[in-house]
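If I may wish for something, please walk me through the protein I am sending here so I can picture the backbone:
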Amino acid sequence: MERRPHLVLDGALATELERRGADLRDALWSARLLIEQPDLIRAVHLDYFRAGADVATTASYQASFEGFARRGLSHDDAAALMRLSVRLATEARDQALAERPADDARPAPLVAASIGPYGAVLADGSEYRGHYGLDEAALIAFHRPRLQLLAASGADLLACETLPCIAEARALARLMDEVGARGWISFSARDGGHICEGDAIEDAVAAVQGHDSVVALGINCTAPQHVAELLARARTRTAKPLLAYPNAGETWDAQAKQWLPSAECAHRPFEDMAMDWAAVGARLIGGCCRTGPAQIAALTRRW
């Protein structure tokens, strides 16, 4: 990060897997394919690296000991699948590096082990609402086993993402301190000033920016039109690198279970909006739901 002004993150994993024919109608979501189609996960990672991504985020967002146990898997089997999520991204990176021309001097890409919120394990959309009814101590107890495993999995860093509330961000920052890991904290937001549970983005950033384990702070899985304002507000409370990887601009209709187009984003390319995020300080930029290798390739051409 000190040598390069920007890093390009990858794009969506789950919605890209769906675009390629995977059926993710399951409480495990993309983690289901760790069991059924791991080769497809590796292929998506590889295509993002080929598109120029500097960071791949693993298919562990929805993975948890509790979720796999409901599927009838043992603790050891669940642990093996979470380690597999890191190995698939690492294997894709190795292949991408082997394909590079000899004169390509770019640093090797990174693998970020995804740690989704408690709400993702509930599989009821509460990562976009918060209000779990759990205090910080309970959230630490929930996240500790998975975070410890992923921190020791060989990933370069952790991606604590789509967090709707301050308590969960603090819990994950404390756990990263506890195990000596490093990673980013990324919030989901409801508008240009507030994370999903309702707290101001300034307060959310301030709550965790003092932790040395937190190497970057930002926003993901949020409507892109809100991101520039959110980042500008976040910058008033932290000097850490900012990151942004919002959705492509469509809105999820939970009742109809389909993505609906957004008039605000329909006539502006994703990579153009990303320049606004860079202008207010984002140094790590990529995409979340409904973005794909094409958007990541377009971003890399800007840098």
